[in-house]
Design brief:
The chain is an all-beta fold. The chain has 1 helix and 20 strands. The protein has a 6-stranded antiparallel beta sheet with strand order 1-4-10-6-7-9, with no helix packed on it. Strands 2, 3, 5, 8, 11 and 12 form a 6-stranded antiparallel beta sheet that branches. The protein is elongated. The chain starts with 16 loop residues before the first strand and ends with a strand.
Length: 327
């Protein structure tokens, strides 16, 4: 008896990837506050549009395995916004001629359209493919019955019926946040995404990490260095994840240099907030450092600052350098 052959097909929608440009930032985020626990899988895609000048943005890219334009029927997504903005998190559908990849177009939902929610707090959008809310730009689009660029807006169904675009395929779908001429787009967290009824699981992929890009900050002690100073203040809905700390003292007066979370007068104000301390002076050992595996270092509470101080006054002779992420 012959053994039946089984073919494993590639999924239509691939795993999501985060991208950003200009002043924008993007990172994977564990839920940080009670409000963020209402939706999603336990991870959200944190999109920060930043100060807007026309080319500042953050996005989720979902690869698509050559889905016919005519076969894409529905999309829905949810997202939490820090503030009400002039634009919401909108969808962009990237299409091309499957037989000639020089011919392509990006079909963009107008992110200020009335039906796209953009209020402070949780927003949810169910795409209406008949609403005239899309515009397109592309190359090799000769033959279409549609006109490129605003103020020429069409429903997705118009692209599906177009003599040119109905023969093309989708190679990527993205959720974009930004591309405005002015203003500042604060953090948004995308929790859910469904395309054609299929849930796209939003979570870090192999090689990804939680939080934003790695940052390094250095600060010298100043004034009376025994008085607590704030070194890092995260964004209002973010937490600081420590990757490494280095402390040094150029004075021959020995002192303990303290690094800790919170606003306590010293590290012993709340021993659970300790990050690192080292005894430093130029006579014996002028510097100490510690490194944590990326993602496994101490993490503060939401919006909690990182503070520094010394046990003896060394004025401006101390230095603290911290490598960290915000998540």
């Amino acid at each position: 008896m012959s053994v039946p052959t089984r073919r494993i097909l590639e999924p239509i929608f691939g795993k999501p990837v985060l991208r950003y440009g200009g002043a924008g930032m993007a990172g994977w985020c564990k839920e940080n506050s009670l409000s963020q626990l209402q939706k999603g899988s336990g991870w959200t895609a944190n999109l920060y549009g930043g100060a807007q000048s026309g080319d500042d943005w953050a996005a989720i890219y979902v690869p698509v395995n050559e889905l016919d334009v005519t076969d894409f029927k529905s999309a829905l997504w949810t997202y939490l916004m820090t503030n009400a903005e002039s634009m919401g998190v909108g969808i962009v559908i990237w299409v091309h001629d499957p037989n000639d990849n020089d011919k392509r177009a990006e079909i963009t939902q107008l992110a200020s359209v009335a039906g796209l929610e953009k209020a402070q707090g949780w927003n949810a959008h169910e795409l209406d493919i008949t609403t005239d809310q899309f515009f397109f730009y592309g190359e090799g689009t000769t033959g279409t019955g549609l006109t490129a660029g605003p103020p020429n807006y069409y429903g997705w169904d118009d692209f599906q019926a177009d003599v040119l675009f109905k023969t093309w395929t989708i190679y990527r779908i993205s959720l974009d946040y930004g591309w405005e001429a002015s203003g500042t787009f604060e953090d948004a967290w995308v929790a859910d995404l469904k395309l054609n009824g299929q849930r796209i699981l939003l979570k870090p992929q192999l090689g990804d990490h939680a939080g934003g890009e790695v940052k390094t900050l250095t600060q010298k002690t100043a004034g009376t260095s025994t008085t607590k100073a704030t070194m890092i203040t995260p964004a209002s809905a973010k937490r600081v994840r420590i990757i490494s700390v280095a402390v040094s003292n150029l004075s021959n007066a020995g002192t303990e240099i303290e690094v800790y979370f919170g606003t306590g007068d010293n590290m012993d104000s709340d021993v659970t907030k300790a990050i690192f301390s080292g005894w430093c002076d130029t006579d014996y050992q002028s510097s100490h450092n510690i490194s944590f595996p990326d993602g496994a270092g101490p993490v503060g509470a939401v919006a909690e600052v990182v503070s520094i101080r010394t046990s003896a006054d060394i004025s401006t002779n101390g230095r603290v350098t911290i490598t960290y992420r915000e998540e």
